[in-house]
Amino acid sequence: MAIRQAVIALALLGTTVEDPALAQQAPQLGGDISPGLAVPQEAPGGGIVLPQADRAPVLAEGPAPDVAGQTPAVEAPETAQTATPLPETLPAQTTPETTPAPRPGLAGAYDRARAFLVNGGPAIWAIAALSVVTVALILWKAWRLVLAGAWSRRMSRRAVEAWEAGDAAAALSAIEGRKGLRSRLTRAAMQARLGLSEDAAREETSRVARGLLASQGSALRALELISTIAPLLGLLGTVMGMIAAFQALQEAGSRADPSMLAGGIWEALLTTAAGMAVAIPASAALTWFEAVLDSLRNDLEDLSARIFVADLPGERRGGSLASLAAQ
């Protein structure tokens, strides 16, 4: 509204109004526009002349106003700063990658095992295969010892006590049908003692004892081999991983990141840890099985010695040695 009034005032100041009625209204219009403007004076001939101080400079360009009082359209002034054009497409805002939360239960354990195998490299797969073989050998060996009666001593000791008492028939019947290692050796030693000479009986008893112990010594060499090569495989994987890490560090040059070297080192050390994790149970199981066999060997030697030291039942009371040996 203020701009429009200023334009009307400029138009009135720069022209001479021919209409006396319009000239009479000019002072009132000028007073309405601004209190600081001087009152226009009536010039000779019917015109209106403003004081020199209140005259506005003549515009260089622009259409003259219409006599009827119509004002030309005034263009809006250009702003000092032009609006910055908006880009057609906004750049996509990148969000940092987040590590997914680990899944609980068996699914999480499977994910961790899979990541462990992937990060470990080829050596970790060989160690994983050795771990499966180790578990299978330990379970199979323990089951074989249970079936062989490695911890069963009662019936064989009862039979030897009956033999020492001079009752060969009761001694043989106590271990009849028994599948334990001690019972089998005791029966073989008693039959050899009754049917063969002492030297031949001793040789026969030694042969049977060696066969029984050899049958239970299987798979021990395999456990010993695994406990030896598993750490070596882990060390080999660690060395290969360290070589790869330092090669990547050399290729990076001045842009090398210490975290990159640290990541390569801890991934390389996974194989050493895995090799030790396989070798420790294998070595412990091997030591335990060897201790069980040593105890079994001592028991067999003790039982056979007691059988040969004791007098024959026929020497105490005349009996048929042939019938006892046939049993």
Automatic annotation (TrEMBL):
Keywords, ordered alphabetically: Cell membrane, Cell projection, Cilium, Flagellum, Membrane, Protein transport, Transmembrane, Transmembrane helix, Transport
Subcellular localization, as worded in the UniProt entry: Cell membrane; Membrane
GO cellular component, one term: plasma membrane
UniProt keyword annotation of Cell cycle present: no
Comp. bias regions, Low complexity: 71-100
Transmembrane spans: 123-147, 225-248, 268-289
GO annotation terms (biological process): protein import
The keyword Transmembrane helix belongs to this UniProt entry's keyword annotation: yes
InterPro entries documented for this protein: ExbB/TolQ_transport, MotA_ExbB_proton_chnl
Domain MotA/TolQ/ExbB proton channel as annotated: residue spans: 183-301
Pfam families membership: MotA_ExbB
Bilayer topology: Multi-pass membrane protein
Family statement: Belongs to the exbB/tolQ family.
Protein name per Swiss-Prot or TrEMBL: Biopolymer transport protein ExbB
Provenance organism: Pseudooceanicola antarcticus
